[in-house]
Amino acid sequence: MSRKGMFISLEGPEGAGKTTVLSVVSERLKAEGKPVLVTREPGGIKISEAIREVILDNDHVKMDAKTEALLYAAARRQHLVEKVMPALKQGYLVLCDRFIDSSLAYQGYARGLGIEEVFKINEFAIEGMMPDLTIFFDIKPEEGLARVLNNAEREKNRLDKEQLSFHKLVYEGYEQVIRQYENRIVRTDASLSKEAVIENVYKIIASRFM
Prior knowledge:
Elements: E1 6-11, H1 18-31, E2 36-40, H2 46-56, H3 65-89, E3 93-97, H4 100-110, H5 115-126, E4 133-138, H6 141-150, H7 164-180, E5 185-189, H8 194-209
Parallel strand pairs: 1-3, 1-4, 2-3, 4-5
């Protein structure tokens, strides 16, 4: 699909602060007159939000790893065709909180399904629709989880309640994904102050596309 707009995904471990930073940066871009669409995965539209509820439900502790990976891919597919692709055709800057790299790190590496195996599942779903840029919010799992525990307003989902060992594997998975896609993925230090991270993320986007 030819795209007039730009597709940027934001990635990182739990508690990295992506959602907060995304909200501020997107408003700044809108104030400058940029056509911006903010969305998230899994979710963003009705069908994908319903799948999100199934995936992250705290009662679904028996969910098989392959089931989890397939559900993420299904939510991703619907989200792309219903929301992301039309926006890109119209020239929007699409800012997406998580995309395919989350599946590669969480299900591919941390769940042990294999990064390439999970990519193949998603290749069928996305049909080559990769982000133009991915910003990785770099924060150690211990610090990210501490933020989650201290944030009373944040939803505590099934993945938040995984053991620290799982989240360390997620971080290792992201390291592998970054090495594989180093031309697309840019790191930002998410352990800095909120204001500093916001400024850094804005500069990354501005330097590439503005």
